[in-house]
Amino acid sequence: MQTVDNQDNLSLEKSYSQKDWQGGYESLNQEYDYWIDEIEGQIPLELQGTLFRNGPGLLDVNGQRLHHPFDGDGMISRITFTNGRAHFRNRFVETEGYLTEKKAGKILYRGVFGTQKPGGWLANIFDFKIKHIANTNVIYWGNKLLALWEAAEPYLLNPQTLETLGNEYFNGVLSTGEAFSAHPRIDPNAKLVNFAIKPGPTTTINIFELNTNGEIISKQNHSVPGFCFIHDFVITENYCIFFQNPVKFNPLPFALGIASAGQCIKVQKNQPTKIILIPRTNSQTAENEVKVLETKAGFIFHHVNAFEVGNEIVVDSICYNSLTEVEANSDYRESKFEANAPGQLWRFNLHLSENKVENQLIDNRACEFPVIHPNNVGKPYRYLYSAATHNPSGNAPLQAIWKVDITSDTREIWSAAPCGFVGEPIFIPRPNSEKEDEGWVITLVYDAEHHRTDVVILDAQNIQQGAIAKLHLKHHIPYGLHGSFTSETFI
């Protein structure tokens, strides 16, 4: 795999200050409910619906800092757009662990990414109970609002009040503690496809397909040799596709209480990435069997999309040269971006008849959280949007929204630098639109200068013209993870 020298960044002026970036990693303890009154520009009248966001709302428990933000309790933010106005509400997902620690006023659970109970290894040895934090994604599907975390079952929420109603088991198809991942893909043919990983020396991959009533209509189980660390996947008409990152897991330090589960995962840099193609239940492929291809691909968290062209499948992904490991005594707020490998846009051509993979770097710019038009999921597409760095090379916090035209090989960028830091963009098609990029791109931007978050609306056909509306919240939202949009409105 080709790599990019991070020394390139030294010749460019730094686009941010570490102190500004750190401000987005403060807890938000208060829950709000208000109409957003401070707005620059105008909210398009055609923009009707609800944006849901999820992410760690707490980065500490009563002043005891978490070792990693991914260990923080999930907090749902809801922005409802109606008749040119917008309403904000946020609320914590009241998981068992969140309520227990809130009552106790201290850390009581180990976290996946390094948070340990106070008291050293003696307090953590042989404690395998990890807190369900429901902090990774939130979707509205089949009249159900679900907070997702990939290691356990979803939490069901009331979309009107964001009240936590309990766990969702889909009429008993899921069992207690069974995982339902945080990265579903919505097939344009009105199905939601999701997966779950049960890791071990042999890993089980479960695949679920749900209808528009929110019912699981099919469930597949497949065994894969080796340990799997898989956060995302892609779908085509006939396949679910997983990239099995080259990692190994040594559970002994975790069992002995001296490291978290995440710290026991180590990248095997000289080993290939395995690409697992599992036929979907409606697959019309001639050979209805699992295929495994191998390639040199670094480490992948997120994919853009995949589509079939004859006997070939194209997969576009955000690929890192290596995984940045979480050290036991490190402070994530002091991350040295320039020293870490950037995520970059790559294309993988899977030649099924030859069991061969070809890789191509599409662009040097560091980027993450890619999104496309929902009608093109699993199909050929032209445009993608992602969070990206301000500078075209090197690594840094995400401060810009980037549009890539795959067909014409052109780029557009809107940047919030130097004091703005962006989250995952969401693409919302304009009602009755005919063009693939006709719609809006919405993202949350942490404004370090005012220590608040802005809801920024961009014209997807011309993002570099700047925000058509910028909604100033009364507070900040800690850096989040994933979210979704529905045309339904909830106030």
From TrEMBL:
The keyword Nucleus is annotated on this UniProt entry: no
InterPro entries per the UniProt record, alphabetical: Carotenoid_Oase
UniProtKB keywords: Iron, Metal-binding, Oxidoreductase
Any Pfam family the entry gives: RPE65
Cofactor entry: Fe(2+)
Keyword Cytoplasm: no
Family: Belongs to the carotenoid oxygenase family.
Protein name as it appears in the record: Carotenoid oxygenase family protein
Source organism of this protein record: Okeanomitos corallinicola TIOX110
